[in-house]
Design a protein that fits this description.
single chain, about 210 residues, mainly alpha, 11 helices, about 70% helix
Amino acid sequence: MEKRSVRDGIVEAALALVSRTGPALLSMRDVAQRAGVSVGTVSYHFSDKNLLLEAVLDEYYRELDSFWSHVAANVAGQAITREQARQIIGELFALLRRQRNLTRLRIMLSVQTGTITEARLNEHLIRYAEALQRSFPHYTLAELRLRMYSVFLLTARYAAMHMDEWKSITQQSTAEGASDAVKALLLEMAVDLMQIPAEPAAESDSATTRVRL
């Protein structure tokens, strides 16, 4: 129990430092100082910085796991409409934006290492692609994985942006205007990327089964 407590303290210290300075400037010495332990203790639990940063991302991945599990349970094999896809991607965007420091860390680690670990892929992408495959029968499992991952990366990149970047690319002067413009563009691009056909014009809201998140 004591080792677990020390480890958790190290991870919490690393998270606080990463949120403030970013992963590039994180040092094991700074983590040790903030956690109140020796550098040797940090190295005992995490042999290198990347392993520590992956541990910092554990809670982030748990939230993603909960999100996709909820989506898969609500979709339950039914075909997904464009409106339902916008709703799902909008909720994903809100989650990633709320956790934008960890979203940035996730992006930076992928750029730095050139990959995401196989265990992470299996846990947070492949099994949910399998769960959702009946909702996208026109794709093979490999095609669906690629499209889901592409949508995730697109959503994560927009969610990780600083507000000033949002304002710059949308030419909006207010945070609300920039946020609305970015979200609208993201949803259309993501839905188009999944190649979900448009609903017939005559289809009524009452005839459309909505995914409740």
